[in-house]
Amino acid sequence: MSSQIYEGQIPDGWKVIKLGEISLIKTGSRNNQDKSSDGEFPFFVRSATVERINTYSYDCEAILIPGEGGIGSIYHYINGKFDAHQRVYVIRDFNKNIDAKFVFFALKEFFGKYALQNTVKATVDSLRLPTFQNFEFLIPSDKAEQERIAQVLSDMDDLISAKCELLDKKRAIKQAAAQQLLTPKPHWHTTTIGEICEISAGGDLNRLTFSPIKTDKFLNPIYSNAVSDNGLYGYSSDFDYEGNFITVTARGYIGYAAARNGKFCSIGRLLNLKPKFNISCFYVAEYINHFIDFVIESTGVPQLTAPQISKYKISLPKDKTEQEKIAQILSDMDDEILALQDEIEKLKMIKQGVMRELLSGKIRLKG
After folding, report:
1. What is the pLDDT at residue 2?
2. What is the DSSP annotation of 112-126?
3. What would the DSSP string read from start to end of 313-343?
4. Is the distance from CB of 274 to CB of 198 less than 8 angstroms?
5. Residue 366: its pLDDT value, please?
6. Is 303:251 a contact under the CB 8 Å cutoff?
7. Distance between CA atoms of residues 132 and 135, nearest Å
8. Among 156, 77, 107, CA closest to 354
9. pLDDT digits 0-9 by tens, 185-195
10. 120 φ, ψ (degrees, to nearest 5)
11. Distance of CA 86 to CAs 10, 26, 63, 65, 90, Å?
12. Where are the alpha helices (DSSP H) in the chain?
């Protein structure tokens, strides 16, 4: 509770209340076997996924929080007909001077830490009714101010959701374009990766002096078999390779390919492909990512080896200019996708900061 109050002061016109004082809190009555994939109504279970069901027990405005599984991290808001699992808490019938959407955002922001400190240790961590009833939080006495705060946060959520939907569409368009552009044409050449590339494996990180950030001394990127951040691990003053290459992850997320150029270091389970001929590395990377499904036969940890990858077939235009045009189209799409991803992450960060200050009364939205 104290983390919600700035400088130990309750904002003017706000008050501290308990969740149990302003709402009715009970668990649902359904079980997992009651769900139906084509059910008419939402069915809230002990996960972030909302299932479907053919019956409903509630027709109201409510907040739903699982009492087991994902403690303090799963929150749902609904206003309508629905049903709930017997280990999901249904918070409803709010006092007339309480805006349920405001309470929903307050719970999302502040309930998680409190819940983890008040779990019951049984066969699995779980929450009991008193934990919900005794949860305290700040709220404006004026319902209109509650509604204004909830509306701002809802609008930000809607904006983020719209951006996420656009991101999904752009990814689908990129996938469709890649399938069309990379499908072999009659005038193309089909060969193997081993015939067009020299293949080597990444080395041990311990041999390198490196920095997690780029500096005047540490300029050369270090790439690993991680997929996040395009495989960038850090920067080194040394380098293993110079020129145009394709790196392919050989363990973990096997088969992720990326075009590299300039000076760089390669570490971990990473294969490095150097073209033997004048071909587009971006094209080869895109072809591998979209058209090659690596099948790894291993008795231990699955790993792609140089002999294995060398045997896989690849089709490409004989003219490098055509390769580059295809790669440029797909690269431009990737740039749009990455820009949108960055925008979404920034919006989430802005929303998180705004939410905490609005729900603590540091920023006021008075009428």
Report:
1. 45
2. HHHHHTT-EESSSEE
3. EEEE-SSHHHHHHHHHHHHHHHHHHHHHHHH
4. yes
5. 73
6. yes
7. 5
8. 156
9. 999 999 999 99
10. -100, 125
11. 36, 9, 15, 11, 10
12. 19-22, 100-116, 129-133, 143-182, 193-196, 281-291, 306-310, 320-359
In the block, tokens 């008419």 appear at 40
Q: Is 20 left (phi over 0), alpha (psi -120 to 50) or beta?
A: alpha
The model's pLDDT over 112-157, given as tens digits with 9 standing for 90+, comes to 888 888 777 655 568 899 999 999 999 999 999 999 999 999 999 9
**What pLDDT, on a 0 to 100 scale, did the predictor assign at position 5?**
54
Q: How many residues does the chain have?
A: 367
The model's pLDDT over 224-253, given as tens digits with 9 standing for 90+, comes to: 998 888 899 999 999 999 999 999 999 989
| Phi (first) and psi of residue 68, to 5 degrees | -140, 150
Contacts of residue 239, Cβ cutoff 8 Å, sequence gap at least 6: 220, 263, 264, 265
Do residues 358 and 152 lie in contact, with contact meaning Cβ atoms separated by under 8 Å? Answer: yes
DSSP lists the bridge partners of residue 242 as: 263
Give residue 177's identity as a one-letter amino acid code. A
Q: Which residue in the block uniquely carries the two structure tokens 């668990």?
A: 27
Listed residue (266, 133, 141, 271) closest to 207, CA to CA: 266
Tokens of 239: 């380098």
Q: In terms of Cα–Cα distance, which of 226, 220, 208 is closest to 260?
A: 220
Q: What are phi and psi of 251, to 5 degrees?
A: -150, 150
The answer to whether 296 touches 255, Cβ cutoff 8 Å, is no
Structure pTM? 0.81
Residue 266 to residue 284: CA distance in whole angstroms: 18
- Take residue 122 and report the two structure tokens written for it: 């049984």
Give the CA distances from residue 14 to residues 4, 81, 360, in Å, rounded to whole numbers and listed in that order: 12, 32, 9
Could you tell me if 272 and 263 are in contact, meaning their C-beta atoms sit under 8 angstroms apart? no
> What's the pLDDT band for 364 if we cut at 50, 70, 90?
confident
